[in-house]
């Protein structure tokens, strides 16, 4: 038995495909200075393996921390249809360069991801091009509500995503009866973008009349978010469905959601934790424009408090790039969304360095948390039998984030020029080292994320958990 309490089963040959040696490994029991042996994409041994195991590939992690692979459960990679902004190859390449080993991609592409053929087209497009593992959301809509229970269980489906605001056409679900139909068809946790579409339309004149991006959080105010969040939670209680509320941005929502944790999980984003209004709008202009908006300091303080008190379950990047040419349009014609998958881990490691959260808490928010709440099979922790996914980082490395490092087709980052402490050095996906010494290596070998069958077969009565 090793220091983690896991039994090491000897193999006849003690031969691994990959041996990670000398690092400080973040196990479920905490940080341990142990080695990790990997074979056929899985972890097969943990402990002091020097001299007892050999491997085809050895990775020296001396002075580094070995984290369970980071899972970014909210990205928009724009393929198909919008590949002038982003695509699956570039998006996943940026992911692994930033230490991310798996992503969940959103359905607002062209065509929208609304049926089995749409989902399969994305899985086919990712084959041989995706650098990390992946799953794709199906959009919850009036046109497919009755099919969602079947669609959410298809291989490679991350679940159902609902846009209550900030969307268009068949993907916009802002009517209570439509939302009830969606909520009643399916058992997996439903992800939701909660902004009140009617209020946004009523208040859009604020943005139009001002033509000033600093008015973005005034137009899309606290009530726009809070009203939608309260409404979808009420409907979820009525329909017996679990929710995952994406990119929560306000103190008021956090106060409300604290009483709903038996049914609702919570995501926050690095940009809401890092950027502040009005300074970010004055410095970056429309490059700081996101939905929901980056808000004032007291909202950010509430998000950090929610991380400290355990209310937040997941950090997702909401990577949603547009080209610089599109972003240069006068506000509010400028589209909302920024790159984020590649900078998620560096930005959050810098917050660890600053003492805003512990490394163990970051692991929970970016690995164990997503695996737990979405029922991901074999990911989210460094333990025997789990996928050999590792984000190997140097907590002391000092770097400056530069736009020329960004792999995204859009080629920019709101963090250009920002100094950070903490940086991804190696990225391992199912035992394959795809980034070594900060450089891409090998070929794209990402596959569809697997989900636990029992997760989607729960009875509706158990969905309160």
Give a structural overview.
About 30% of the residues lie in helices and about 25% in strands. The chain has helices at about 90-95, 115-125, 150, 175-185, 195-210, 215-220, 220-240, 250-255, 270-275, 280-285, 295-310, 325, 345-355, 360-375, 455, and strands at about 15-20, 25, 30-35, 35-40, 40-45, 55-60, 65-70, 70-75, 100-105, 135-140, 155-165, 190-195, 245, 265-270, 315, 390-400, 420-430, 430-435, 440. The protein has an 8-stranded parallel β-sheet with strand order 8-9-10-11-12-13-14-15. The protein has a 7-stranded mixed β-sheet with strand order 3-2-7-16-17-18-19, covered by helices on one side. Helix 4 crosses helix 7 (about 220-240). It is globular and about 70 Å long.
Topology:
Blueprint: E1 15-21, E2 24-27, E3 30-33, E4 35-39, E5 42-47, E6 54-60, E7 65-68, E8 70-75, H1 88-97, E9 100-105, H2 116-126, E10 133-139, H3 148-151, E11 157-163, H4 176-184, E12 190-193, H5 197-210, H6 216-219, H7 222-239, E13 243-245, H8 251-257, E14 264-268, H9 270-274, H10 279-284, H11 297-308, E15 314-315, H12 324-327, H13 344-353, H14 359-374, E16 390-400, E17 419-429, E18 432-436, E19 439-440, H15 453-456
Parallel strand pairs: 1-6, 2-7, 8-9, 9-10, 10-11, 11-12, 12-13, 13-14, 14-15
Antiparallel strand pairs: 1-4, 2-3, 4-5, 7-16, 16-17, 17-18, 18-19
What key phrases describe this protein's structure?
465 residues, alpha/beta, disordered C terminus, 15 helices, seven-stranded mixed sheet, single chain, eight-stranded parallel sheet, disordered N terminus
């Amino acid at each position: 038995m090793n220091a983690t309490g896991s039994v090491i089963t000897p193999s006849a040959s003690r031969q691994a495909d990959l041996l990670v040696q000398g690092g400080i490994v973040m196990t479920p029991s905490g940080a341990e200075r142990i080695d990790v042996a990997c074979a056929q994409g899985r972890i097969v041994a943990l402990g002091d393996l020097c001299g007892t195991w050999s491997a085809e590939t050895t990775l020296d992690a001396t002075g580094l921390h070995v984290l369970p692979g980071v899972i970014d459960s909210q990205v928009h990679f724009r393929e198909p249809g919008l590949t002038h902004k982003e695509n699956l190859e570039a998006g996943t390449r940026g992911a692994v360069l930033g230490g991310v080993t798996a992503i969940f991609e959103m359905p607002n592409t062209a065509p929208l991801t609304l049926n089995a053929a749409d989902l399969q087209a994305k899985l086919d497009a990712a084959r041989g091009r995706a650098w990390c593992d992946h799953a794709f959301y199906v959009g919850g809509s009036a046109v497919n509500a009755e099919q969602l229970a079947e669609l959410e269980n298809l291989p490679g489906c991350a679940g159902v995503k609902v846009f209550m605001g900030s969307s268009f056409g068949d993907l916009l679900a802002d009517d209570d009866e439509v939302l009830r139909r969606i909520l009643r068809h399916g058992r997996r946790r439903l992800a939701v973008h909660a902004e009140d579409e009617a209020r946004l339309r009523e208040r859009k004149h604020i943005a139009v009349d001002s033509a000033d991006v600093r008015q973005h959080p005034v137009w899309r105010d606290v009530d726009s978010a809070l009203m939608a969040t309260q409404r979808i939670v009420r409907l979820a209680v009525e329909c017996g469905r679990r929710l995952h509320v994406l990119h929560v941005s306000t103190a008021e929502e956090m106060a409300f959601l604290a009483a709903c944790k038996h049914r609702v999980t919570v995501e926050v984003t690095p940009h809401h934790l890092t950027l502040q209004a009005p300074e970010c709008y004055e410095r970056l202009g429309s490059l700081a424009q996101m939905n929901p908006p980056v808000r004032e300091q007291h909202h950010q303080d509430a998000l950090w408090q929610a991380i400290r008190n355990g209310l937040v379950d997941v950090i997702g990047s909401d990577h949603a790039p547009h080209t610089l040419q599109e972003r240069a349009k006068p506000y509010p014609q400028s589209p909302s969304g920024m790159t984020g998958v590649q900078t998620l881990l560096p930005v959050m490691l810098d917050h660890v360095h600053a003492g805003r959260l512990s490394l163990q808490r970051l692991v929970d928010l970016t690995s164990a948390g997503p695996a737990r709440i979405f029922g991901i099979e074999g990911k989210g922790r460094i333990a025997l039998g789990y996928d050999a996914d590792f984000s190997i980082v140097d907590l002391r490395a000092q770097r400056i984030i530069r736009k020329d490092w960004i792999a995204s087709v859009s080629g920019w980052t709101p963090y250009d020029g920002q100094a950070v402490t903490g940086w991804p050095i190696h990225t391992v996906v199912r035992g394959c080292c795809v980034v070594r010494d900060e450089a891409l290596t090998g070929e794209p070998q990402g596959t569809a994320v697997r989900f636990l069958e029992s997760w989607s077969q729960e009875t509706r009565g158990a969905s309160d958990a």
